[in-house]
Amino acid sequence: MARSQAAATSTAETRPQSTKARATTKDEQHKEWEVKEILEVKKKWKSLYVRASWVGYREEDPEWYPISDFKTSPYLLKKFYRENPKALGPPAQLPAWEEAFEAGEEDYEHLNSNKSMDPVSKSRYLKQISSVAE
């Protein structure tokens, strides 16, 4: 398991957000790691994968993780897409991940898609998050 530092930036927030949100990653020991930032996204077989940097580790992690492993870190993903609007994605379920996080849901298993948003949804989403940031 991994955790991420997530800064809540949504104007729709009704409660203060934790500065640490979990991002689940699958490793052989099921340890929890703190995600520093999302580095890049790639698409493989119609699914999105992420490379991330980890708090406390100077070395780059060469591993690519399914983007749904970071579903409990919607603010890190949102920040990445705000800063990299031409990157592949965002994931189709990112708004649902953010909603679930804000609602304090613990079970995200039903939100496990690694599929990308369609171009129209991506355009709308990027406009929405860029206007919130301004």
TrEMBL record:
It comes from the Eukaryota. One of its GO terms (biological process) is chromatin remodeling. Residues 33-92 form the Chromo domain. Residues 1-22 have a biased composition (Polar residues). CDD domains: CD_CSD. Residues 1-29 are annotated as: Disordered. Component of the NuA4 histone acetyltransferase complex. This is Chromo domain-containing protein. It comes from Botrytis porri. The lineage of its organism: Eukaryota, Fungi, Dikarya, Ascomycota, Pezizomycotina.
